[in-house]
Every structure is written in C-alpha cells, then in structure tokens.
Amino acid sequence: NRNDYYRSILTDSSEEERTTLTGKGEFLQSLETDFQLNGASSERTNLLNQMIERKIVVTPENLKSNQASSVLEDYSIENPGRSFQTVAPGTWKVIYAPHMTTMAGLGGGEFDVQYTLNDDGTMVSHAKYDFPWLRQQGYLSVSGTYGSVSDTVCRVDFDETWVRQLSPPSDGNLDDNYDDAPYQNIASVPDSVTKSLIQTVGRSFFIEGVSVFPVSYLDDDLIVFDFELLGTRICARKIN
C-alpha cells in the first residue's frame, strides 16, 4: 500500500531521508483527510505544484511496472487528455480545490464532492453542501458525459442538474430511517416546478469555461485538472 509507505517514511525516517519522499507522497501527507475536501493553504498548493513539476511521464502500459520498480518517483501517464479514459471509470473524490473551500468558508460551511464515471462515457457528480448557520444541507447533482479534446485536455458536458434538500432533525439524532443520500439521477427527482426551474437555471451555467480542463497530472488513482476560468487546480482521488 503506497499510502502506508508514505506514512512509514514520515514516521520512522530522519529529516534527511524524508527528502526522498515523492512529490505525490509529500502532497498527500500534507492533507488532513484522504478522501474528503481539504482546506487550502500555500504549503499544500506548492506541494501540488512540485508534484506536477517532478513527474516522470510514462505510457499507460508502463505505469504499473514503473510504480512497482520505484516508489520514489512520481509517474504520470502521457497524453492525459486522451489517456484519462483508460483509468477514468470508477468513483473519484475531490480532495483539494482551493476555490471550493474558499467559497464554502465564506458561508461558514463545507462541500464534499464526488464523481462517478462510467465505462460508456457517462458520468454523475454529487456535491454535498452543509451550511449550519444557514440551516442548509443537501446535494447539488449534475450528469452528463466525459471525453477528450486533445492529448492534454479533457472535457465534461453536463446536461442535467438537480438538487436534493435535506432536513435532518434539529436535535441531530438520526434514526435508521433517515435517508441522507442524493437522488442518483434526474428521473429519481419528484416532478415539481422547482425541479424544472433548477434544470433550466443549471443548463445556463454549462459553458465552455466549466467544461474544458487541461490535465496536468494523471496516474491510476490521482488526477489534477487546471481550472483555467478561476486560475486554480482541482485534485481528485479515485476510491474504487
């Protein structure tokens, strides 16, 4: 387990030996959680940038063998805009996105963002929001497709948007019958004027600037997108 390896280096090694930790390892170790959105800091952003700068580009076929032969290098798959589709299927969690945590912090809340990408090129995303002082909790969900633009750029094309507003008990005691999961698709959302309004408003935000993403790092369980519209990056980690 590569995460256990990183942790053993930080725990058992001297300061000099820790310099051999990979850029990816240093970045991951700087985070508070493995699969949730972590707070932004200049240190974490610098470590993320260093990971990208130190990467060694390999073919998708050679990724595993290179990782096995040396855990002290960061191997990124070549042509990530197109190669992304070879490792994409599965569930990914956003673990670092400064613009998201900044926005959440302004409202005194937090986000938890998950993407599920399917073999057929379809995808669904659920962004859980929790703003206690506004008494707002729920999910903003989108669905669509993903694909390639060029060797270095991928894109997502969303076509549906929906929301599930949660209403947890005020005393915080959740029984076994409380359902806090998102609606899995647009068909699961009960018909209403609100549903139609959200669909209409959501589609107006599906612009090119939030659809096209250069990929600056990609391996079998980590990807870094450049969010050029806001001049920041999004790092997501595969959980299965």
Structural features, described:
The protein has helices at 2-12, 15-18, 23-30, 42-54, 63-69, 80-87, 98-106, 193-204; strands spanning 56-58, 75-77, 90-96, 110-117, 122-131, 136-148, 153-165, 212-218, 222-227, 232-238. The chain starts with a helix and ends with a strand. It has 240 residues and is of the alpha+beta class. The protein is built from eight helices and ten strands.
Outline the secondary-structure elements.
Elements: H1 2-12, H2 15-18, H3 23-30, H4 42-54, E1 56-58, H5 63-69, E2 75-77, H6 80-87, E3 90-96, H7 98-106, E4 110-117, E5 122-131, E6 136-148, E7 153-165, H8 193-204, E8 212-218, E9 222-227, E10 232-238
Helix pairs in contact: 1-3, 3-4
How do you describe this structure in short?
The protein is of the alpha+beta class. The protein is 30% helix and 32% strand. Helix 1 packs across helix 3 and helix 3 (23-30) packs antiparallel against helix 4.
